[in-house]
Amino acid sequence: MRLQSLARFLKRDDGTATVETVLWFPLFIAVFGLMLDMAMIFHGQAKVLRIVQDGNREYSIGRLTTPDAAETYIENTLALMDIQATATTTEVAGVAHTLVRVPANQLQVLGYFSAFSGLQLSITAEHMIENWEV
After folding, report:
1. SS (HEC) of the chain
2. pLDDT digits (tens, 9 = 90+) for 115-133
3. Among 14, 30, 100, 109, which one has the highest count of C-beta atoms within 10 angstroms of its own C-beta?
4. Which tens digit of pLDDT belongs to each residue from 40-94?
């Protein structure tokens, strides 16, 4: 009886898919995590760009009077979103140019991939200064 049960057990193949699933599942999870982190980095970059454009617009219409005020506005607005960034605003030939640097690891969700730890995002925007003095 035991020999027949062992032979029947060795002939069965209905559990073979489980082995492949167990082997491939960690790879699928890693790829999904990578895609999630990359999507969040791109989404964060778009949010930062919007704030930089808002800061430049405020400076160009005169609500913010100096480049330092525009930098402070941008950095403080990003800090409300838990993003620590450095902003540099310059005015050249009637154009406000702002460069913001953000470490990519601040925009990640999972943070499993150390390749992003040293990545620095540079977001720039330019806006023409409106001249209200006539």
Report:
1. CHHHHHHHHHHCCCCHHHHHHHHHHHHHHHHHHHHHHHHHHHHHHHHHHHHHHHHHHHHHCCCCCCHHHHHHHHHHHHHHCCCCCEEEEEEECCEEEEEEEEEHHHCCCCCCCHHHCCCEEEEEEEEECCCCCC
2. 777 889 999 999 999 875 5
3. 100
4. 999 999 999 999 999 999 999 989 999 999 999 999 999 999 999 999 999 998 8
- Contact between 86 and 101 (Cβ < 8 Å): yes
Return the structure tokens found at 2: 């035991």
Under 8 Å CB-to-CB from 91, ≥6 apart: which residues?
67, 97, 129
**Tokens found for residue 51:** 């704030």
